[in-house]
Design a protein that fits this description.
Protein name: Hexosyltransferase
Distance between the termini: 26 Å
Shape: globular
Strand order of the largest sheet: 3-4-2-1-5-12-7
CATH architecture: Alpha-Beta Complex
Order of helices and strands: HEHEEEHEEHEEEEHHEEHHHHHHEH
Family: Belongs to the glycosyltransferase 31 family. Beta3-Gal-T subfamily.
Membrane topology: Single-pass type II membrane protein
Keywords: Membrane, Signal, Signal-anchor, Transmembrane, Transmembrane helix
Number of strands: 13
Strand content: 5-15%
Helix content: 25-40%
Mean pLDDT: 80
InterPro entries: C1GALT1/C1GALT1_chp1
CATH class: Alpha Beta
């Protein structure tokens, strides 16, 4: 495993020289990672160090065999590798009473970004961006730096393009949902169709059986914080309910420090304690951000440009937070194809995806053991850096 981490470090330095032109704007010292986890998943945390090299990390856990000094709830322990561990015990089960989330550790996971913010904000070396995800989420740091190069860290952002949503009266929720209430940043990517119209939702376009039929909805473009009122304007003008979308925790969320500065920790914690039976920590975070008045900002990468059949509309093949085609793009047999001068079609798409994808959910539950999941995180990173070296 140590050899894999060393390989990732070498290739990452290479890519920062040839690909990431914004590295001077947001160096790694501007980032922190926040990872909620639990007892028995230490191998996954170890495997995630491959992508976290040089990134200060706040790990919220109920305990750790590697940190025997944990003795009580809410204790913080500084460890090696730039890691800070915070002990937050699981919720206690009481007969007949539900947890706040689906699992006893969901409350810990939901509060961890705000505890991390308080921890690092009190230090002389603060941060600008927070990378938050499950313990089996991988962030591709060169791509993250490139992506954030067009965004202002002073704007309150909760960034993701992978949102669960179900309009009231429609079928089951799914993700990524093109009609989830959200905003686009004013700094849209170059390949987008330009500044979207501030469209409303025509009543004739609404169908309870087909959520994709709301062809008139375009999220508003804002240069400041995405508030609930702004994100919901089109829905309310069409006399439709506007509910909070849910982040996909495995895809991760990127928070600007500015957003967490505006959300009061005590108020957020009181909101979490009012919610019972949420589907997960990502839902808890989403609901309480919404209650605080903030909605998610979609990077806008999946907006299709002129000439595309879905011009001006998002297409799920082009999301950058946990795109489901990532595993195909990282296959070894695609590497040489991407190096070829004849790389086109699906090969060209894979090449674009490699240079654009921000995060990937490795899904530990798909592996037989935590050790196997940790190895999968390492393998994902080494495959990414090898492919990027060929694609550069």
């Amino acid at each position: 495993m140590a050899n894999v981490v060393l390989l990732c470090i070498v290739l990452k330095l290479f890519l920062q020289d040839v690909w990431v032109t914004e590295a001077d704007l947001y160096p790694e010292s501007d980032f922190i990672a926040v990872i909620p986890t639990c007892e028995g998943r230490e191998e996954i945390i170890s495997g995630s160090r491959a992508w976290r090299q040089g990134i200060r990390t706040f790990i919220a856990t109920n305990a750790s065999r590697h940190l025997p000094s944990f003795k009580k709830d809410n204790q913080t322990v500084e460890s090696k590798d730039g890691e800070t561990y915070r002990c937050i015990l699981d919720e206690k089960y009481t007969s007949g009473v539900r947890f706040h989330g689906a699992r006893p550790g969901d409350l810990r996971s939901a509060i961890s970004p705000f505890l991390a913010h308080a921890h690092y904000s009190n230090k002389s070396e603060t941060y600008k961006w927070m990378l938050y995800g499950d313990d089996d989420t991988v962030f591709f740091i060169p791509n993250v730096i490139s992506f954030l190069g067009r965004l202002n860290h002073m704007v309150p952002y909760a960034l993701t393009d992978n949102l669960w949503y179900r309009r009231r009266g429609s079928n089951s929720p799914y993700h990524p949902h093109p009609d989830a209430p959200r905003c686009y940043p004013c700094a849209l990517p170059e390949h987008s169709s330009g500044q979207p119209n501030q469209g409303s939702i025509p009543a004739e376009a609404v169908s309870n059986s087909d959520p994709y039929s709301i062809l008139g909805y375009t999220p508003p473009t804002v240069c400041e914080a995405c508030t609930v009122d702004v994100a919901c304007k089109a829905y309310r003008e069409a006399n439709m309910d506007c509910d909070a979308p849910r982040a996909h925790g495995g895809a991760g969320i990127i928070f600007s420090k500015a957003l967490l500065d505006f959300v009061d920790l005590n108020e957020f914690q009181r909101c979490l304690e009012r919610v019972w039976g949420a589907s997960g920590s990502d839902t808890l975070i989403s609901l309480c951000l919404w209650e605080a008045g903030y909605a998610f900002t979609d990077p806008g990468v999946w907006i299709q440009g002129p000439g595309h059949p879905h011009e001006g509309r998002p297409h799920p093949h082009y999301i950058i937070f946990d795109n489901r085609r990532q595993s195909t793009a990282l296959r070894a047999d695609h590497f040489q194809m991407m190096k070829s001068k004849t790389c086109s079609g699906s090969c060209a798409y894979d090449k674009w995806l490699l240079k654009s994808m921000v995060s990937m959910h490795v899904a530990a539950r798909a592996h037989p053991t935590s050790a196997a999941a940790g190895h999968a995180l390492n393998k994902t990173l080494s495959s990414y850096y090898r492919a990027m070296q060929l694609a550069s």
